[in-house]
Amino acid sequence: MSIPKEPRQLMINLMYLVLTAMLALNVSAEIINAFFALDKGNNTAMQIVNQQLDETEKSLDDLLADTSKYRFRPIAAAVDDVRELSESFINYVQQLRDKLIDAGGNRNGLIDAADFIDNQGQQIPKGKKNKDIATRILVEESNGDLLENEIRKVRSKYIQIFTQLLTKHGRQFDLKEREIKNRIEAIKKSLTLTVGEEWKQSDKKSWADFKFRQMPLAAVLPLLSQIQSNAKSAEATLVNDMALLSGGRVIDFDAFFPVINAKKAYVIKGEQFQSEISIGTYSSQINPEDIKLKVNGIALKVDKNGKAIFNQAATGQGKKTLRLSCEVKNPLSGKVTKGASIFEYEVGMRSATVSADKMNVFYIGVDNPITVSASGVPSNQLKVTIKGGEMIGKGAKRVVQVTQPGIATVTLSGGGLERTEFKFRVKRIPDPIVTISGKTDGIMKSGKWRAQIGLNPELKNFDFGARCSIQSYTMYYTPKRKDVVKLRGEGLRFKGDILKFVRKAKPGDQYLFTDVKCKCPSDVAGRDVNGLVFNIK
What is the pLDDT of residues 436-459, one digit of tens each? Predict the structure, then answer.
């Protein structure tokens, strides 16, 4: 009897680390969409593994139907327990995925609605670039902590099922005490479903904070399907190892893929491109001597886990290509299977920008919002300073305040970025246009004129929320066929004699405003602005 080989998700390590590296960049829409291709690959791999497990379970059932294999029948119950545990956990993670997708604007996961469908027929959910969804649901609402606890619990239960099977029935499987202990320890080391301790070396407060904070929805979905895939891989490890106890498992390799496990898919000139090269399909029965791995024709040393280390200095800017090849010999049949793949990465330079959000000028007396960005530079290492003004705030969005006309210089540095300066002109707020009822001159009916309440200094085509005030002005009132009356006024609103003579308006009268002085934010003294003249009809 032949039971299918132990499966592994093809190129899982590559997907995971390339994904993590790309999140540090200002990635394009094409790369965002590529995350969904990674997610689709994880799900496809799980479907393949599940089909193989179904075949393994059916083959095991057929084997145990033989009366000579009666003593191995407890294995079937343990296999059922493992597969039920995996299904329950994968469904739990799927519910989290659906909740995140729904929060992005869909309903019922991807079933009822999708933002669009790409040219491969892949459904892409709405809110794919939204970073607040994962932060809120997985970090702030503690669902990530619950997921971490569930991973630990399921891993522990996997080991418990296997341990109970061997300790209770190991002797009837013709296993010695030492072999039982070794098999249990081997299973503990080989299970791929694990939380990991990398986050403890960071400044994050928890595994969930390290894993999901400020991650776009497009990136979180592959991370969750990776966890589901790890659970399916752990299930496969246990089922195949338990099937092996019955003496019926035969290794049968049909395809192999070199996998590059890269720390970054985008590196800065002068840095090293660091990676791990391994075989996508793995079996504990394969010896390192039976594996040959090459990168661009150069042979690598393979360790006992079927992995090899590959490091290469990042020189020159642009796209780089690695051609990978492998040969694997089946230790039972002696058959040699070959495979090949190509991996591309890009060497770039750090870049930075500072842009004014409203106008490409800083104005005195108002808040000038700016956006700061630096690709390839960790935010906690980026230094932002200003000469000729004051800066308020942190992160990408900040506010600049200036007090003197001239030039203000914003400087970015740190994190390996060369000192970069951005210069902005500093100007006074432009002169307002003083109007009455939206006009500076013209003819106005007496009734409408008598309803006016004052002068209005308008900052036209000025995007900032600044307001100017009227300091003083002179009004010349010329009644029809009478002498001119000269009055001095102050403030925006008509008052005193000014208001009294405005209320006297009759057809044929004229009103002239001169020597109008206006004061805007940051002005030390008033500025001269336009006059006004109106004829009453």
Answer: 999 999 999 999 999 999 999 999
